[in-house]
Design the sequence.
C-alpha cells in the first residue's frame, strides 16, 4: 500500500459501511510503505474485528473468488491488473474515476465509477449491491463477459 492508492480512504469507507452493515468483512492484500501504519490505524477502528490483512497473495484471483466487491479508492491509476483479475472472476469493481479505469469499467454496466472523494456514494452503492444479489450477479457476469471477450481478440 502506497499513499496514492489511498488506503486511508478505504478505511473511511469501511467505517461508514460498517455503520449500516456489521456483516461485512474487509480484506486488504498487498504490501508497501504504509502497511505497518495501516495495521496500527485499523486497531483503532470500530470495525477492526472485520478486517483481514493478507499481505501479498499469489495467485490474487483467490481473493477475488471469495469477495463480493472490489473497491479501488486510488487518486491515480493506469489500468491496474487487480481490476482486470477481479472482473475476470465476476467480482464487481467500485473505483475512483481516475486514469485508465474509465477505459475498463462501464459505469452501472460492468462496474461502478465514482469521484475519488465520494466515499459516501461508494458506501451507498456497496450497501445497495450487497442487498441486491441479483443485480450484484448481473454486474459480475457483465464484467466477466467483458474480460473474456477481450481475451479472445
Sequence:
Amino acid at each position: 500500500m502506497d499513499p496514492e492508492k489511498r488506503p486511508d480512504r478505504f478505511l473511511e469507507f469501511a467505517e461508514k459501511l460498517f455503520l449500516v452493515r456489521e456483516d461485512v468483512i474487509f480484506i486488504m492484500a498487498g504490501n508497501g510503505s504504509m502497511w505497518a501504519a495501516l495495521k496500527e490505524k485499523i486497531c483503532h477502528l470500530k470495525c477492526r474485528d472485520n478486517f483481514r490483512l493478507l499481505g501479498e497473495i499469489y495467485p490474487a484471483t483467490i481473493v477475488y473468488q471469495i469477495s463480493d466487491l472490489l473497491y479501488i479508492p486510488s487518486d491515480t491509476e493506469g489500468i491496474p491488473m487487480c481490476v482486470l483479475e477481479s472482473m475476470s472472476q465476476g467480482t464487481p469493481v467500485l473505483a475512483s474515476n481516475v486514469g485508465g479505469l474509465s477505459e475498463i469499467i462501464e459505469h452501472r454496466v460492468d462496474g461502478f465509477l465514482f469521484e475519488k472523494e465520494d466515499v459516501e456514494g461508494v458506501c451507498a452503492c456497496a450497501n445497495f449491491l450487497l442487498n441486491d444479489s441479483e443485480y450484484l450477479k448481473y454486474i459480475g457476469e457483465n464484467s466477466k463477459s467483458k474480460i473474456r471477450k477481450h481475451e479472445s481478440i
About this structure: Residues 11 and 85 are 22 Å apart (CA to CA). The chain has a mean pLDDT of 95. The two ends are 33 Å apart (CA to CA). The beta strands are 26-29, 51-55, 70-72, 93-96, 112-114.
